[in-house]
Amino acid sequence: MWKKKRNIAWMIMVVLILVFTAACGNEKNNAATEKQAKTEEKAMKTFTMANGKKVEIPVHPKRVVMPYEFLGNALALGVKPVGVTQAVMENPYIKEQAKEIENVGNPISLEKVAELKPDLIIVYLEDQYKQLSKIAPTVFIPFGHYKDIQEEMRVFGELLGKQKEAEQWIQQFEEKAAAAREKIKGVIGKNETVGIYKLQGKDFYVIGDNFGHAGQIIYNALQLTPPEKIKQEVIQGPQWKLISLEALPDYAADHMFWTVYKMDGTEQAEKELKNSAIWKNLNAVKNHHVYEMKIEDIWFSDAISLEHQLDLVVDTLLSAKQK
Amino acid sequence: MSRRRMVIPLLFLCLLAIVAISLNTGVSRMNPMEVVKTLVGMGTAKQELILFEFRLPRMLIAIFAGAGLALSGCIIQTISRNPLADPGLLGISTGAGVMVVLYLSLFPTGADAPALFLPFLAFIGGALAAALVFALSYERQQGLLPGRIVLTGVAVAAGLSALMTVLSLRLSRELYQFAAVWLTGSIWGATWDYVWALLPWVMGLFLFVSYKARVLDALSFGETIATGLGVAVAKEQLQLLAAAVALAASSVSVSGGIGFVGLIAPHLARRLVGAHHAHVVPASALLGACLLLGADTVGRAVLQPSEIHAGIVVAIVGAPYFLYVLARSAR
């Protein structure tokens, strides 16, 4: 009985100490946010995010932390961030520039970001938004939310205070795209269709025009035509569709861009695919109009990657034509 | 006997030590002097931000969720007379997940909900899943059958997990990412709201369970003997299991599904302090807190700037311990 009472007394002491610490902490928390507010004296503007909420951001941010997937956009506008998230896959087109930028981990390390003292943070997941907003103004940009790279670059121009540079980039990209369309005239016939396909693990996917994998190049920049079924179910739908091998002929196109994302079972699945009668009977396969691309070359859809992918796709089509 | 008396104070000191280490751990290098200065209010704004907004809430969540899971495991192990029972057996974390995904699929703007809404839903979901498991394992003449609890728990968890997968397919890409991240455990997204949501539950239920320590002692002998000792078995079992579910569900709702803590902490506590629940209960809570806080600290220290999720660190420690226990009991 006495023992039990003594233990309970210990426990109540523990409780009181912890509650005391927590209460202290909460007070300090208010003081901390106040201290921060006082040191901000830069020119600010209001930005409306994709979810409708508004946030105050600096007109000319100097220290930006952003996701690795958007890094190309910033670099294209001449902005070098102070921190990027951990890359899931390395982007071959910005490898050199990315080396010099601090890695803030994935999931984002709150402390690392705080250490970098940014004045603008960009995220594409909402989960850490609240905590990150305590460090610096945070903007939520959903991934793949904007219709095409032009719209996306305009948003980034506004975010980074580089509207003029954004317009310049858009203009030169559209000029390049027009020139590219000229170059490939005659490679792909007017009534021929083009599709984008991926083998990931053991699963087979059809990809749309705004989901990476050079979709924006093939459908937007080069203005090639998708098969009707892909257009309705994928492009106007969720932008990606998992299909079975048997369904492949329904989604096949005259020209097929094809990529492999290696995971468990991929090698086996690829062998099965290439040996199957279904594959061998596809028009594209019979006419040698299947173009295999490396996943890291076409995975990213930022400005710099898209510029390189434009050249890559054009070269692939032209060199195939010569065979 | 006297060695056993030392255990609980030692565990408490151990916890304080881990707290001290954890306060000093993180990407941001603050030496101990700076930490103390910041704690008293004399640090820079950045240091205060890091310490009070990022590290401290997270540590408190780890402490209370660890204690909650341990207490829950303690109750379940005693009542089901299975020293290897774990709150995860009841399908609580899966139930919590289903509720969150169900809500997000019906209300796509759900991610904007006030901070505590999702944990609240997770709590309800976890509690419902556990209630389902109990309902299915209740045999009117015999009360709750321990063997049935395990099997039913596995079945219910599997079914709910399948349901969760189906529901999550209906989510938009962004919501799916949000849900996936939220479900794997939000210790690193811990804010003070979560701390205040969890603290009263765990504290209150801890006092309740401590009060019932004698009842737990009686129940551990089996229902017949317990009735002989004057315990209203059915009523007490129900109350204590409700407490166990509430403890586990509230912990899961703010920290995601973390296994092994509810299994190892009470098990180890029993080996250290004996069978009297007057000691086992506080020892379990302290061990659970030490374990989860320690795991979180290690997870933050090892792979900077990324981190290893606390649940994974616990599993790395827990799996070998579990195997060791199995090996010993096989002899």
UniProtKB/TrEMBL annotation, chain A:
Residues 1-25 form the signal peptide. PROSITE patterns: FE_B12_PBP, PROKAR_LIPOPROTEIN. It comes from the Bacteria. It holds the Pfam family Peripla_BP_2. Residues 62-321 form the Fe/B12 periplasmic-binding domain. InterPro entries: ABC_transptr_periplasmic_BD (IPR002491), Bact_iron-sidero_bind (IPR051313). Keywords: Coiled coil, Signal, Transport. The keyword Membrane does not apply. The keyword Zinc-finger does not apply. It is found in: Cell envelope. Residues 163-190 form a coiled coil. GO terms for biological process: iron coordination entity transport. One of its GO terms (cellular component) is outer membrane-bounded periplasmic space. Belongs to the bacterial solute-binding protein 8 family. This is Iron(3+)-hydroxamate-binding protein FhuD. It comes from Parageobacillus caldoxylosilyticus NBRC 107762. The lineage of its organism: Bacteria, Bacillati, Bacillota, Bacilli, Bacillales.
Automatic annotation (TrEMBL), chain B:
One of its GO terms (cellular component) is plasma membrane. It is a multi-pass membrane protein. The keyword Transmembrane applies. The gene is fhuG. Pfam families: FecCD. It is found in: Cell membrane. Belongs to the binding-protein-dependent transport system permease family. FecCD subfamily. This is Iron(3+)-hydroxamate import system permease protein FhuG. GO terms for molecular function: transmembrane transporter activity. CDD domains: TM_ABC_iron-siderophores_like. Coiled coil: none annotated. GO terms for biological process: siderophore-iron import into cell. InterPro entries: ABC_BtuC-like, ABC_transptr_permease_BtuC. Keywords: Cell membrane, Membrane, Transmembrane, Transmembrane helix, Transport. The chain crosses the membrane at residues 59-76, 88-107, 113-137, 149-167, 187-208, 215-234, 240-265, 277-296, 308-327.
